[in-house]
Design brief:
The structure holds 2 protein chains of 2 kinds. Chain A is an all-alpha fold. The termini of chain A are far apart. Chain B is an alpha/beta fold. Chain B has 2 domains: about 190 residues, D-Maltodextrin-Binding Protein, domain 2; about 120 residues, 3-Layer(aba) Sandwich (D-Maltodextrin-Binding Protein, domain 2). Chain B has 12 helices and 10 strands. In chain B, the strands form 2 sheets. In chain B, strands 1, 2, 3, 4, 7, 8, 9 and 10 form an 8-stranded mixed sheet that branches. In chain B, strands 5-6 form a two-stranded parallel sheet. The radius of gyration of chain B is 21 Å and the shape is globular. The chains are: A mainly alpha, B alpha/beta. Chains A and B meet through helix 2, helix 3, helix 14, helix 17 and helix 19 of A and helix 1, helix 3, helix 4, strand 6 and helix 8 of B. Chain A: This is Tripartite tricarboxylate transporter permease.
C-alpha cells in the first residue's frame, strides 16, 4: 500500500491551484500547437521550456507533460474535421474520421476520440503506477529481431486494408514502401534516390506526404466537384448515441492494449500504435466491413492507442532514463535542467516529485476530456464556414504547416506533389490506407532487419530462435493465411460486391 | 489564423522569459571592436542544423540568449534540421556574409559531409569563418554492470582474443561511434563489430540494456545519467583527459591505447564575413563561456563546456579534418 499512499501524496501536491492552472494552460497550448501540422509536441515543448524556468520543478514538468499529450488531441481535431493529419499518429484517423464528418457526424467522432484518449491514457498511467519496473523489463525484451517480427505483423495486417481490389491495394502499399526507401541507407551510409538533395538524406518526411495525400488531395478532389463536402452537425448530432458507445467500447479496449504495450518499447513512435490499432480493427472488429466508410471504431481505436502509447512511453523514461521519443527526450531535458536525472534512482531520491508528476498525468487526462468534449461544438462550427472560404483557409494552413516542419520550402513542394498523387489515387479508386502503413513501417522494417542480421552475423534463424519473435511471426502467418482462406471461402456472388472499404 | 497569433505570442513570451532568466555577470559592458556596426541594425539569425529540443539546439538557445545581453543585439534561432546538419550548413554557407547570419557547426558531421563525396556537400572548410567552440563531448564505452570487462585494457584484450566477437552499438555509419571502432582497430588491432542504429541513441540503448549488443558506445553526456543510475558501467573515455562528469573512469590514452574521438559543437559565420564582426562575436562568446553561472547551467544539462576562440577553433577544425581524412577510407572499405 506504499505505492497508494505515495500516489495520494502526489495528488495532494498536484491538485494545488497553481499546478491545476498550469496543467490547464499546458493542455490548451498543446491542443493549439497540435492543430497546426508540423508543430508537434517536440517543438512545442522545446520552445516553451524557457517559460518554465521560473516555476518550481514539479510545476514545470506538469505543464510540459500537459503540452505533450495536449498536442496529440489537437492533431485529431484537424484530422477529423479537415482531413489534415497534424502528425503521423493521427493520419490513420483521417480515414474514418473525415468520412464521419462528411456524414455530419464530426461531433460524434471528436467526442469518441476524446473519451477514448482519456480511457487509454488513464489505463496506461495506472499501469505505470502498478508495475513500472516489470513493464520496463518487458519493453527491453523487444530487441531488433522482435521488433522486425512485430512490424511483419503490421505488414500482414495490410491485407485487411487492401479494400476491394488487391491490385490497387498493392499499388498503394508499394508506392508507400518506395517513398520509405528514399534517404541514406541505414547501414552502408550511402544516399538512395536523393537526387543529390541533402533535404532527402533523412528520407521523405511523413507529414508533408500525409498532409498532401489526405488534405490537399481532398481539396483538389472537391474542387473537381466530385467528392461530398462536409457539413456542420447540428447540436443534437454532437453526442454519440448508445450504439456508437457500444461499438466504440471494444475498439477502445483493443486500442488501449495495443498502444500501451507498444508504448513500452523505447524508440517506437505513436504512429505505429495507431496504425496497428486501426489495422487490427479492420481485421477483427465485428463491423470491419464498415471501416473506411466512417465507422466509429476507425476513430476510437487509433486515438485511444496513441494516447495510451504516449502515457506508457513515460515508463521507460521513469524507470530506465531512456527517452522513447523525441518529445520525451525534450521532457527529459526539462528534468535535467532542473537537476534531476530520470531513472530508477529518481523514485528513491525524489519520490514526491515523481508521484506528483504521475498524479498530474491522471489530472491532465481528465482536464483534456473536460476541455475538449464541451469544445467539440465550437470546433465543428469551423465547418459552418462557407466551403470556398474554408478551402482557401485550409490551403494556407497546410502550406504553412508543411513549411514549419523543418523550415524548409522543399517540404512544401513535397506536400503539393503528394496532393496531386492523392487526387490521382482518389480518381483511380486506389485506397490510401496501405500507403500510410508502408510509408511509416518501411524504414522501421529495414533498420530492424539489418540490425538483426548484424547481431546474428548474417544468420536468418535469429527470427525463429527467439521466442517472442517466433510468436509474432506465427501471428503474422495466421493473419495472412486466414485472410486468404477467408476470401476463398466467400460465396462467389458476395466476393464481387464492393466491400465499401476503399478510401 | 488566430492559432498562429497565439503561437507567435507564446514564442515571444518564451523569448522574453528566457531573457529574464539569464543572469549575466558582465554588467552589459560594451565589447571592444564596436559590435554596434555589425550586429545592431538587424536581428542576427542563428541557424541550428538540428531539431528544436535536441542537445545542439538547447546549447545554441542558451548561447543566443547570453550573447544577446552581451552584444545588446537580437538573435533569432532558426532550426534548419536535416541530413545530420548538412541542410543547416548549406543554408549557412549560402547566407550573406554580413554578420547577420551565424550557424551551429557540429563535428564530426560538418567535416565528414565535406570529405565523403557521396554526400555531395555544397560547401567545404573554406565556406566558413569559425567563431568559437562551446562543447566538446568525448565518446565513451559502457558495459552492463555484471560484465567481466572493467578497464580499457580488458576491452582491448578481450577484442584481441576473439576478433569481431564483441559487438558495439553505433548511431550509424560514419558516426562518432563508428569512428571509435575503426580508430581502435587501427591503433590497437582489436576488432569490435558495429551494429548500426541510424535512428539514434534510444534504440541503441534499448538493444544494449536488453542484452542484444555487448557494448554501448555513446557520448559521455548520454552515459553519465545511466552510470549514475547504476544501469551501465562506463569503462573508458576516448578523450585526452578524464571527464569531469566521470572522474573515476580512465581514458583509453592513459592505458596506452591512444584513441581520441569526440563530438564538438561550435559556431561559424559564412566565409567573407568582416573580420571585426567575427572578432566581436568571438570575444562576446569568450565572455559568455567564462561566466561561471552559464557554465554551471550547461553542466546541469550534460553539455560539457569547452571553449576555444576563433583562432583556436580554426586550428582544431584543421586538425580534426586531418584525423577524419585518415579514418574515412576505413568507412568506405566497409561499404
Amino acid at each position: 500500500m506504499d505505492t497508494f499512499s505515495d500516489l495520494l501524496a502526489g495528488f495532494a501536491a498536484a491538485l494545488t491551484p497553481q499546478n491545476l492552472v498550469l496543467a490547464l494552460i499546458g493542455c490548451v497550448i498543446g491542443t493549439l500547437l497540435g492543430l497546426l501540422p508540423g508543430i508537434g509536441s517536440t517543438a512545442g515543448i522545446a520552445i516553451l521550456i524557457p517559460l518554465t524556468f521560473t516555476l518550481d520543478t514539479a510545476s514545470a514538468i506538469i505543464m510540459l507533460a500537459a503540452i505533450f499529450y495536449g498536442t496529440a488531441y489537437g492533431g485529431t481535431i484537424t484530422s477529423v474535421l479537415l482531413n489534415i493529419p497534424g502528425e503521423g499518429e493521427s493520419a490513420i484517423t483521417c480515414i474514418d474520421g473525415y468520412e464521419m464528418t462528411k456524414k455530419g457526424r464530426a461531433g460524434v467522432a471528436l467526442t469518441i476520440a476524446g473519451v477514448g484518449s482519456f480511457i487509454g491514457g488513464t489505463i496506461a498511467t495506472i499501469g505505470l503506477v502498478l508495475a513500472a519496473e516489470p513493464l520496463a523489463d518487458l519493453g527491453l525484451r523487444i530487441g531488433p529481431p522482435e521488433f522486425f517480427s512485430l512490424v511483419i505483423v503490421g505488414i500482414a495486417l495490410l491485407v485487411g486494408l487492401i479494400g476491394e481490389s488487391v491490385v490497387t491495394g498493392l499499388i498503394s502499399a508499394s508506392v508507400g514502401m518506395l517513398i520509405a526507401m528514399v534517404g541514406i541507407d541505414p547501414i552502408a551510409g550511402l544516399p538512395r534516390f536523393t537526387f543529390g538533395s541533402a533535404h532527402l538524406f533523412d528520407g521523405v518526411s511523413f507529414v508533408p506526404v500525409l498532409v498532401g495525400v489526405f488534405g490537399l488531395g481532398e481539396l483538389l478532389a472537391n474542387a473537381g466537384g466530385t467528392a461530398r463536402r462536409p457539413s456542420a452537425p447540428t447540436l443534437r448530432e454532437l453526442l454519440p448515441t448508445r450504439t456508437d458507445l457500444r461499438r466504440a467500447a471494444p475498439a477502445i479496449g483493443r486500442g488501449t492494449g495495443i498502444g500501451f504495450l507498444i508504448g513500452l518499447v523505447p524508440g517506437v513512435t505513436n504512429a505505429i500504435s495507431s496504425l496497428l490499432a486501426y489495422s487490427s480493427e479492420r481485421k477483427i472488429s465485428r463491423y470491419r466491413s464498415e471501416l473506411g466508410s466512417g465507422a466509429v471504431e476507425g476513430v476510437a481505436a487509433p486515438e485511444t492507442a496513441n494516447n495510451a502509447h504516449a502515457n506508457a512511453a513515460l515508463v521507460p523514461l521513469f524507470t530506465l532514463g531512456i527517452p522513447t521519443s523525441p518529445a520525451i527526450a525534450v521532457l527529459m531535458g526539462a528534468f535535467l535542467m532542473n537537476g534531476l536525472t530520470p531513472g530508477p534512482r529518481l523514485f528513491v531520491e525524489e519520490p514526491l516529485l515523481v508521484w506528483t508528476v504521475i498524479a498530474s498525468l491522471f489530472i491532465g487526462n481528465a482536464i483534456l476530456l473536460l476541455l475538449n468534449v464541451p469544445l467539440v461544438g465550437l470546433w465543428t462550427r469551423l465547418l459552418a464556414i462557407p466551403y470556398p472560404v474554408l478551402s482557401a483557409l485550409i490551403l494556407v494552413f497546410i502550406i504553412i504547416g508543411s513549411y514549419a516542419i523543418n523550415n524548409s520550402i522543399i517540404d512544401v513542394y513535397l506536400m503539393l506533389f503528394f496532393g496531386v498523387v492523392g487526387l490521382v489515387f482518389r480518381r483511380l479508386n486506389v485506397p490510401l490506407a496501405p500507403l500510410v502503413l508502408t510509408l511509416i513501417l518501411g524504414p522501421l522494417i529495414e533498420s530492424a532487419l539489418r540490425q538483426s542480421l548484424q547481431i546474428s552475423r548474417g544468420d536468418f534463424s535469429i527470427f525463429l530462435t527467439r521466442p517472442i519473435s517466433l510468436t509474432l511471426l506465427i501471428v503474422a502467418a495466421v493473419i495472412v493465411v486466414s485472410s486468404v482462406l477467408g476470401s476463398r471461402l466467400k460465396p462467389q456472388g458476395k466476393a464481387d460486391l464492393p466491400t465499401d472499404a476503399t478510401v | 489564423m488566430r492559432r498562429l497569433t497565439v503561437f507567435s505570442a507564446a514564442l515571444a513570451l518564451a523569448a522574453v522569459t528566457a531573457g529574464c532568466a539569464d543572469t549575466s555577470e558582465g554588467g552589459g559592458a560594451t565589447t571592444p571592436g564596436d559590435p554596434a556596426d555589425c550586429f545592431s541594425q538587424r536581428p542576427i539569425e542563428l541557424v541550428v542544423g538540428y531539431d528544436a529540443g535536441g542537445s545542439t539546439d538547447v546549447g545554441a538557445r542558451m548561447m543566443a540568449t547570453a550573447l544577446e545581453s552581451k552584444l545588446d543585439a537580437t538573435i533569432n534561432v532558426v532550426n534548419r534540421p536535416g541530413a545530420g546538419g548538412q541542410v543547416g550548413l548549406t543554408a549557412l554557407a549560402n547566407a550573406q556574409p554580413d554578420g547577420q547570419t551565424m550557424g551551429t557547426v557540429n563535428f564530426p558531421s560538418a567535416i565528414v559531409s565535406v570529405l565523403d563525396e557521396s554526400r555531395q556537400a555544397a560547401y567545404d572548410r573554406n565556406s566558413f569563418a569559425p567563431i568559437g567552440l562551446q562543447v566538446i563531448d568525448p565518446s565513451a564505452v559502457a558495459v552492463r554492470p555484471d560484465s567481466p570487462i572493467r578497464t580499457p585494457t580488458d576491452l582491448v584484450e578481450a577484442a584481441l582474443a576473439a576478433p569481431g566477437r564483441l559487438q558495439a552499438t553505433t548511431t550509424g555509419p560514419a558516426s562518432n561511434e563508428h569512428f571509435v571502432l575503426l580508430e581502435l582497430e587501427r591503433v590497437t588491432g582489436a576488432t569490435i563489430s558495429p551494429v548500426h542504429f541510424s535512428e539514434g541513441g534510444a534504440p541503441a540503448t534499448t538493444a544494449f540494456l536488453g542484452g542484444n549488443v555487448d557494448l554501448l558506445l555513446a557520448n559521455v553526456s548520454d552515459l553519465t545519467p545511466m552510470a549514475a543510475n547504476g544501469e551501465v558501467r562506463v569503462i573508458g573515455v576516448f578523450g585526452d583527459e578524464r571527464s569531469p562528469f566521470l572522474p573515476d573512469v580512465p581514458t583509453f590514452a592513459e592505458e596506452g591505447h591512444d584513441v581520441e574521438v569526440a563530438s564538438s559543437r561550435g559556431y561559424a559565420f559564412p566565409a567573407g564575413t568582416p573580420q571585426e564582426c567575427v572578432t566581436a562575436m568571438s570575444e562576446a562568446m569568450g565572455e559568455v563561456m567564462s561566466d561561471q553561472e552559464f557554465i554551471r547551467k550547461m553542466q546541469d544539462l550534460g553539455l560539457a563546456p569547452s571553449h576555444k576562440d576563433a583562432e583556436a577553433y580554426a586550428q582544431y577544425w584543421t586538425e580534426s579534418t586531418e584525423v577524419f581524412e585518415t579514418l574515412l577510407p576505413l568507412v568506405r572499405a566497409e561499404r
